[in-house]
């Protein structure tokens, strides 16, 4: 599971009003290189919840991202930033671990990179 | 545009699930020739099964594909398929009707939803969620026999600003599941493109059953 996906998923338990972002418990992180696409990064940047993203990347062991989202103009000129953004968003994979509901603490296991968000009967 | 093929072309070659390879091919034709919904976009494949549609989207240049399915066995196969094709696809195991999903990061949803033979209206439930999640377009397959119903539901109840049948396909579904009564059946299926109306809030928590008959 990449951090792009983590930036979209939220807790789906009945009654939870504040299910985003999910906490992350890391057991195994894998890095897989993919080709960088600057246009894609520029398009996706405004849609990313930066705080959730930068916090998550730290948990995954990558500390190069700035705490605060930079000005969008940075995306036009700063190749170094684009590289870091790309790396954290698309190249870090949570292979084993768990996602955690921020409100209830309920853990959603992640195995072989796939989070299991299936709910128990009493959570629906 | 109506495409009818003879049954000799329709036989699915290997793979699993009930989406023949040429359906993905038709998807790719529809998406790339007419609309700019796939390349460089974030695409979600709802009810991805073994990942055929998501893989087609990735091969067509989708920047990121996320496949969602309820069944761990299918997801295992989908994962292997993606790896064999050297595609970057994220998979999530989830019940579509209980999807916890933030905002409109996903540009396009592609899907071959369950047709509603076992659970009536299952394909409309999927469409309900897809139209909430996608910011640009939804590509979906529904039985031709339900065409009017799908159009009405999409435009009147599910917040679609447009609903268009791109082509009509026929394929043979072999007896794959226990609930399939016949040895083989030939069905007509529409490939639809829906456009959601611009919206709404940040968080989408789809825990409510789709309110349609």
Automatic annotation (TrEMBL), chain A:
**Gene3D superfamilies in the record, alphabetically?**
2.20.25.10
Q: Which GO terms describe its biological process?
A: rRNA (guanine-N7)-methylation; tRNA methylation
Q: How does it assemble?
A: Interacts with TRM9.
Superkingdom, according to UniProt?
Eukaryota
Organism source for this protein? Durio zibethinus (Durian)
A GO molecular function annotation here is: protein heterodimerization activity
The residues forming the signal peptide are: none
Output this protein's name. Multifunctional methyltransferase subunit TRM112-like protein At1g22270
Q: Which InterPro entries match?
A: Trm112, Trm112-like
Short name of any one Pfam family annotated for the protein: Trm112p
Annotated family = Belongs to the TRM112 family.
UniProtKB/TrEMBL annotation, chain B:
Q: Which CDD domains match?
A: AdoMet_MTases
Per the UniProt record, one Pfam family is MTS
Highest taxon, organism lineage? Eukaryota
Q: Which residues form the Methyltransferase small domain?
A: 37-120
Q: GO molecular-function annotation terms? A: nucleic acid binding; rRNA (adenine-N6-)-methyltransferase activity
Membership in a protein family: Belongs to the methyltransferase superfamily. PrmA family.
What is the protein name stated in its UniProt record?
Answer: Methyltransferase-like protein 5
């Amino acid at each position: 599971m990449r951090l792009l996906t983590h930036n979209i998923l939220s807790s789906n338990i009945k009654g939870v009003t504040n299910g985003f972002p999910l906490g992350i418990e890391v057991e195994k992180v894998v890095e897989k290189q993919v080709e960088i696409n600057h246009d894609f990064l520029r398009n996706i940047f405004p849609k990313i919840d930066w705080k959730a993203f930068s916090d998550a990347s730290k948990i995954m062991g990558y500390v190069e991202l700035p705490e605060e989202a930079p000005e969008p103009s940075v995306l036009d000129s700063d190749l170094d930033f684009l590289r870091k953004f790309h790396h954290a968003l698309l190249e870090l994979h949570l292979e084993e671990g768990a996602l955690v509901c921020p409100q209830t603490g309920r853990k959603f296991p992640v195995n072989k990179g796939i989070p299991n968000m299936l709910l128990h009967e009493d959570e629906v | 545009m109506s495409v009818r093929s003879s049954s000799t072309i329709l036989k699915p070659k290997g793979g699993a699930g009930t989406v023949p390879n040429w359906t993905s091919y038709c998807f790719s034709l529809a998406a790339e020739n007419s609309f700019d919904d796939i390349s460089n976009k974030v695409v979600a494949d709802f009810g991805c099964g073994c990942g055929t549609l998501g893989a087609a989207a990735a091969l067509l240049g989708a920047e990121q594909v996320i496949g969602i399915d309820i069944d761990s066995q299918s997801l295992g196969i989908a994962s292997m398929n993606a790896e064999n094709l050297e595609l970057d696809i994220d998979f999530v195991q989830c019940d579509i009707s209980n999807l916890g999903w933030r905002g409109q990061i996903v540009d396009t949803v592609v899907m071959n939803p369950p047709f509603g033979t076992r659970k009536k209206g299952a394909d409309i439930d999927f469409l309900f969620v897809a139209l909430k999640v996608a910011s640009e377009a939804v590509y979906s397959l529904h039985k031709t026999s339900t065409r009017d119903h799908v159009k009405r539901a999409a435009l009147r109840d599910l917040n679609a600003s447009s609903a268009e049948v791109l082509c009509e396909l026929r394929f043979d579904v072999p007896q794959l599941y226990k609930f399939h009564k016949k040895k083989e059946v030939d069905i007509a299926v529409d490939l639809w493109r829906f456009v959601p109306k611009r919206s709404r809030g940040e968080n989408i928590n789809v825990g409510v059953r789709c309110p349609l008959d």
